[in-house]
Amino acid sequence: MAGKRRSVEPQNLPPDALDPRHRWDRPLQAPGHTQVDFEERVDFRRLHAYRLGRVRRALAGSDLGALLVFDQHNIRYISSTVIGEWARDKLTRWSLLTGTGEPWVWDFGSAARHHRLYAPWIPERQSLAGMVGMRGAVSPKAGLFTQAAREIKKILAAEGVAGMPLGVDLVELPFLFALQEAGIEVRDGQQVMLEARMIKSQDELTLLNMAAAMVDGVYQDIFEALKPGVRENEIVALATKRLYEMGADCVEAINSISGERCSPHPHNFTDRLIRPGDQAFFDIIMSFVGYRTCYYRTFGVGRATRPQVAAYTKAREWMDEAIALIKPGVTTDKIARAFPKAQAIGFESEMGAFGLNFCHGIGLGLHERPIISRLNSFDDPMVLEAGMMFAVETYCPATDGVSAARIEEEVIVTPRGAQIITLFPADELPIANRY
């Protein structure tokens, strides 16, 4: 397929590209999963120090005295601890960080003892067991929320920030009420955390690149398996199995969409049988060492019609126009203008079309900063910086009324522009098992 992608070579970088957090002077690695003694790969203690430093800097620039986080991505970013996807939606773990202290982590039962043994970067006395309500399963009448709030207030006083507001990202309401009843002023802490997580270090970019490389390989498997008679859910099963075999720690979701289900985009999968001439697209959302992918590809099954090819060509044009604008110093409203208006793809409003032609930051979380779209970026533009990482998504319905093209590229903002790390061919519509 003809190559039109803008990628950044490491040579001849401008003088201001020197940055101790990154190695813009060498190619971005996609190494094996193991560490070796003969080349530098991911340094996890350096990664922890970088992330903790970013949070401390963001906290110092706010009017908050501390951050209390329940979002699993925020807990991992601050503490480099995790107990798996089981905990993602249960609000059973939390972490506290004051401006001057080390992270405190309250964990689910025996996980706290495990971390005292195997996560020595968390002070032993600050890795604690904790449980409050399990999303209402335990009544507030049991007093666990009150007990936890008093414990937190005592730590805030000991670390000298008891008189300052406490930033919280998300929380069970009884916990919020208990903090307020303890005399703690609660404010939004999610904005501070997203600010911290926005600029990725070299180690983070390497992990993101490794995750993308895994999906590159899975798309080859999908390309070979995509034949009439295969069901959408079979493709999901194939991809999920392969990703876990390759070392994924979470396969969060896979969109598998074909034929008449392509327009409008349903954002899910079914047991629909794939048929000759279908247009089919997929999104693989998974993580490796916590770092996620959001990676769409579209295929023709056996053959493609003129409307399908035309839709794909238009989606690619929008993609290339947006990526061509990506470089440090550019404001996000300029990139948003490269995307079509909602009415151009058959929607009545930008709210109705949101998520089809836009960009979103990606890291430990699937949706981080920046979010770039016609819905929000004109009113609240931000400036791109080297070290940002985000996914660029485009979508174009075909004139046949059922088909549609969906493309997504993950890009790193380097000192010289955008570097694409999603490498399965997408410049032209791939035809799987052509006949």
Please, what is the average pLDDT? 94
CATH superfamily of the largest domain: Creatinase/methionine aminopeptidase superfamily
- Strand order, biggest sheet? 4-3-2-1-5-6
Main beta-sheet annotation: 6 strands, mixed
Q: Which runs of at least 5 residues are low in confidence (pLDDT < 50)?
A: 1-18
Short description:
By secondary structure, the chain is of the alpha+beta class. Helices cover about 30% and strands about 20% of the residues.
Label this structure with key terms.
Creatine Amidinohydrolase, alpha+beta, five-stranded mixed sheet, 16 strands, 435 residues, Creatine Amidinohydrolase, Chain A, domain 1, 2 domains, six-stranded mixed sheet, single chain
Overall description:
- The protein is 30% helix and 20% strand.
- By secondary structure, the chain is α+β, with helices and mostly antiparallel strands.
- It has 2 domains: 154 residues, 3-Layer(aba) Sandwich (Creatine Amidinohydrolase, Chain A, domain 1), CATH 3.40.350; 231 residues, Creatinase/methionine aminopeptidase superfamily (Creatine Amidinohydrolase), CATH 3.90.230.10.
- The strands form 3 sheets. The chain has a 6-stranded mixed β-sheet, sandwiched between helices. Strands 7, 8, 9, 10 and 16 form a 5-stranded mixed β-sheet that branches.
- Helix 1 packs across helix 6.
- The two termini are 18 Å apart.
